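Researcher: Let's do a round of design. I'm pasting the structure tokens now; please hold your answer until I've finished.
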């Protein structure tokens, strides 16, 4: 299976099922035994088409008046994405895409794509005049919501950000058992470290070193996730609760900050995700973590007198800060999701905070940029807001995130 055929098959599956894009691509690429380069191309075309779905559909409307079969629509989508949104050579985009069409549709696909090439510059000029919804392939309610919260200029910057492939970052894990290899990692990544605000983090300029990953020397993690851990400021010997811990990236960082001294209880409601958490933490060498299944939306399975020095509550959210990284999010979000999540988040915060020592601290965090899920939740919690950290993608160049340090 070629990279483009894999991308097309992935697009069909994505449209016809509720499976997440990354799972679809991972399974298809594995079954097709794609090379690393071909997998990268398949991912660019598949994810890029999803990110620009409204745009390419509008271009199809401009080029072809009349009904097009769904199968042909998807072929055209990936072809037009390559022509208008990628750096892929036009001749390759056209020829390879035409080869994906069914025999009786090849002539139509070829004609539309070559018409697109003839009108490419004119269409690109016209795109700048189209509504933002079509230019940047985001639902109108999201654009309207962001314009109210951040203004038109910031919203346009956010829309552009969401439509670009994400950078990949990693955290150096000082708990790794192989100290000699760890020193080598530190030496080789020294010039890529992000500085004092994000200690231990560096940007990858290519595929991650699989040996480093497998040995737990590094962990793929966006720097914005560190805000919640740094605000929590866990100390060796403390008792810490990570209430929504899966897949364990923040838990591992907390263990690193505590130098594996003290107690960390990591809980999550999904047994499957906890298994992934267990594997991640074992690989990272986070030996003091006790992992348990718990659903904090229901009565806690822990005694009321079980108290902690500090609690990290990284709540489920709309993921509105990581739309760039999670290509499905923009198409799954509905207008009432924000209020529904905020209600759940408030309930979780109230329930989990019952397990805080009188002089303890709790960090509430999300990967959302939305006021209703962030400031509004902590302001109505009855807890004292001591410090807040926000990461806004168009300003900070990392994933969107929110973290607040709270006390009783």
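Researcher: That's everything. Go ahead.
Model: Designed sequence:
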């Amino acid at each position: 299976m070629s990279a483009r055929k894999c991308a097309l098959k992935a697009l069909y599956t994505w449209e016809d099922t509720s499976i997440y894009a990354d799972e679809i691509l991972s399974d298809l690429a594995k079954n097709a035994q794609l090379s690393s380069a071909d997998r990268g191309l398949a991912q660019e075309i598949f994810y890029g088409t999803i990110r620009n779905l409204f745009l390419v559909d509008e271009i199809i409307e401009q080029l072809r008046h009349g009904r097009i079969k769904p199968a042909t629509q998807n072929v055209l989508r990936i072809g037009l994405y390559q022509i208008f949104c990628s750096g892929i050579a036009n001749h390759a985009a056209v020829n390879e895409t035409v080869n994906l069409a069914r025999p009786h549709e090849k002539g139509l696909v070829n004609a539309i794509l070559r018409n697109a090439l003839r009108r490419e510059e004119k269409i690109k000029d016209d795109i700048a005049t189209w509504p933002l919804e079509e230019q940047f392939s985001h639902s109108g309610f999201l654009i309207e919501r962001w314009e109210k919260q951040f203004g038109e200029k910031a919203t346009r910057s956010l829309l552009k950000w969401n439509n670009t492939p994400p950078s990949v970052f990693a955290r150096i894990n000082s708990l790794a058992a192989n100290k000699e290899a760890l020193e080598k990692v530190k030496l080789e990544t020294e010039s890529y470290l992000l500085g004092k605000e994000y200690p231990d983090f560096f940007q990858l300029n290519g595929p991650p070193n699989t040996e480093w990953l497998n040995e737990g020397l590094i962990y793929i993690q966006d720097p914005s996730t560190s805000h919640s851990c740094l605000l929590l400021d866990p100390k060796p010997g403390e008792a810490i609760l990570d209430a929504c811990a899966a897949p364990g990236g923040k838990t591992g960082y907390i263990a690193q900050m505590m130098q594996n001294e003290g107690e960390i209880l990591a809980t999550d409601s999904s047994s499957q995700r906890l298994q992934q958490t267990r594997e991640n933490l074992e690989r990272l060498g986070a030996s003091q973590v006790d992992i348990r299944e718990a659903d904090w939306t229901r009565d806690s399975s822990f005694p009321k007198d079980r108290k902690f020095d500090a609690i990290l509550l990284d709540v489920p959210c709309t993921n509105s800060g990581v739309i760039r990284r999670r290509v499905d999010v923009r198409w799954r979000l509905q207008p009432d999701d924000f209020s529904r999540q905020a209600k759940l988040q408030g309930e979780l915060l109230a329930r989990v905070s019952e397990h805080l020592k009188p002089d303890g601290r709790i960090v509430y965090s999300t990967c959302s940029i939305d006021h209703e899920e962030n400031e509004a939740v902590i302001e109505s919690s009855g807890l004292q807001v001591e410090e807040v950290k926000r990461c806004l993608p168009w300003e900070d160049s990392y994933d969107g995130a929110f973290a607040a340090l709270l006390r009783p």
